[in-house]
Fold this protein.
Amino acid sequence: MWKKKLYIENNLNPFSINRSKIDLFFDCNRCFYLDQKHGIKRPHGTPLVINNFIVNQFKNTLNKYRVSQKVFPESNKINKNLIPSNNESLENWNHPFKGINYTDKKTNFKIKAHLDDIWQCESTKLNFPVIIKSTSRRKNISSENIWPGYWKQLSLYSYLLIKNSIETSSTGILVYLNASENLPNENKKIDFELLIFERKLDLTWIEPTLDKIFKNLNNKIVPPSNNNCKYCRYQINIQNIIDGKL
């Protein structure tokens, strides 16, 4: 089945690239090329079962405000009155096997992503793309020391919303559910601190990146190994052992 998803040059049908594959391209051009053109995928990492469970429980709380169309009180932390969107397309947009998409005519790529959520400003009616993450960090978390990839992720969500004719804010929102370092209390519960960050999003990287991906996939030659990629280094070390260089 996976062979049907490989990139074929000059195919009239749009080629789907999801958000995680764009992250892979930034991480390593070679791994991206081997994945998308030859079906050679990186080994899967450990699933974040507990983190995903916590996020899903929080989403259930958000749904209560979504149904009642009331302001989510914690949004006042960023001086806004935001209501979880009840857009009729949202169910598809945050579905892992559907998502939101847009086909870029220049490259014939269908860019896909599944959204965590969208919140709408009560006064301006602008929509904010939202990412929800569960973590446990000792350091003080700020918008400056958060992994930059999350803001890039939000930028792509904003881009897709705009391409789907949604009135979208120039900023994105990241929600962190940060677990307490303390031991579970007498009720065997772990306390979480809810942190909300807002930041202006940069969309200028998206279309130039699609052009680079197009060039990557239409290259007849496999990109060189990336010394900063642990998977490339692993392959190189194995080959050196076979060749007697180690």
Observations:
- The mean pLDDT is 89.
